Amino acid sequence: MRFKSFIAAAAISQMLLLSGCQFGWSGAEQEKDPKQEVNGSSAPVMAHQDKESVLVELLGTQGQRIGQAKLTQVDEGVRIEVESSNLTPGPHGFHVHENGKCEQPDYQSAGGHFNPLGQKHGVGHPQGSHAGDLPNLEVDQEGKVKLDYVAKQLTLESNQPNSLLKDGGTSLVIHEKADDNVTEPAGNAGARIACGVIR
Fold first, then answer.
1. Are 37 and 46 in contact (CB under 8 A)?
2. pLDDT, tens digit, for every residue of 137-182?
3. Model-wide pTM > 0.90
4. What CATH number does domain 53-198 carry, 2.60.40.200, 3.40.50.11690, 3.40.50.300, 3.40.50.720?
5. At 139, phi and psi to the nearest 5?
6. How far apart are the C-alpha atoms of 160 and 157, rounded to whole Å?
């Protein structure tokens, strides 16, 4: 009799154990997988990421640091904030160039203006400006300048034809004279006196 009771108790225990395994029962609520369905989707929840920013170091013709630029993706395009010093007073042409190379002393390695859509040169040109055309830098009598400008034809998003972060990168270049915003291909702005790689 005792043997039959032992067999029955063992069978009941085995059934309870199998039932617990089937429903994930462990004496407490099963921990939820963070990749479980949310709002009917089985995709994992992605954390919000801030818009990308890039810092660019600006170097003079002898490789000396003369300032920096901060590039930030915004809804309208790319915000370009520049602070620089040790420049000659007056206006200086300022552009994004097509290569991410800044080889001294003349910075010709930066190539031409960044112009992925093949447009005409000059901010405000009726046939469209180069994507890399930017306003002149107005340097004060102390050789300092600040610029805060949104370039609407540029992006920091990858895999876009107008991305500053394309393969090989791009660059920011400061010229010795003002860009007249008319003359092809570079506004008659003279030599390149500063450069910074965008990557």
1. no
2. 999 999 999 999 999 999 999 889 999 999 999 999 999 999 887 7
3. no
4. 2.60.40.200
5. -85, 135
6. 6
